[in-house]
Amino acid sequence: MIWKSPLIPGDPIVWRKNLSETTKDKIYDFFMNYGKTPEEKAVLERLGWAPFRASSDLQLVPIRQLALFKEMQGVKSNKGLNEQDKLAKTTEIQAQLDDLDRLNNALSAMSSVSKSGAVNRRSDKTPRRRIRQCAGVDAGCGASTLSGLQDRSQTCKPSPSPHPSAAGSRF
Fold first, then answer.
1. 61: closest CA among 124, 123, 136?
2. Cα separation of 97 and 69, whole Å?
3. Burial (CB count <10 Å: 0-12, 13-18, 19+), residue 17
4. Residue 66: helix, strand or coil by DSSP?
């Protein structure tokens, strides 16, 4: 194997950071409760989806990494920048990439510990606000990454569907 691509989230639903808590709660409640009746399940099945699951902006880390890598390549190939400016910008971008790598490593370590049963998983009594908290590292997609979105977007994501046309996800 020469290179392994990170898993890329498929069609996450995101909202702006500056939405009111009331609006966020209404949107969140809709997606978390949609797909429970037979009619709603039929709609989702026609779309190749399953009911939605709670998620966070952590699933956008691979997107942020790809955007930073692209930005780094642009800086390196920019003939209009002198070497000192290139070094300063690439150092700044590399620091952001290093932060995201540390975040990924920490999440991987936590995931392997929780799979072994050493750490209790969250119960259904965990408040939504806690589930929706973002990581300390800015893992969201900024306006320069996805047009119109604010940094540290919150997301809900469809769960993998047994439907053959639906793409699976590790989230």
1. 136
2. 8
3. middle
4. helix
Which range marks the domain in which residue 30 is found? 13-110+136-158
DSSP 60: G
Look up the CATH number of the domain holding residue 73: 1.20.58.90
- pTM here is 0.53
With H, G, I as helix, E, B as strand and everything else as coil, classify residue 52: strand
In terms of C-beta density within 10 A (0-12 exposed, 13-18 middle, 19 or more buried), how is residue 44 classed?
buried
Q: Considering the domain boundaries, does residue 170 fall inside one?
A: no
CB atoms within 10 A of CB 12: 20
- How is residue 10 written in tokens? 């498929």
- The answer as to whether 7 is a domain residue is no
Does any domain span residue 124? Answer: no
Q: Residue-wise pLDDT tens for the chain (171 aa)?
A: 786 766 666 677 788 889 999 999 999 999 999 999 999 999 999 999 888 888 888 888 888 999 999 999 999 999 999 999 999 999 999 999 999 999 988 888 887 766 655 444 444 433 333 333 333 333 343 322 222 233 333 444 443 433 333 333 333
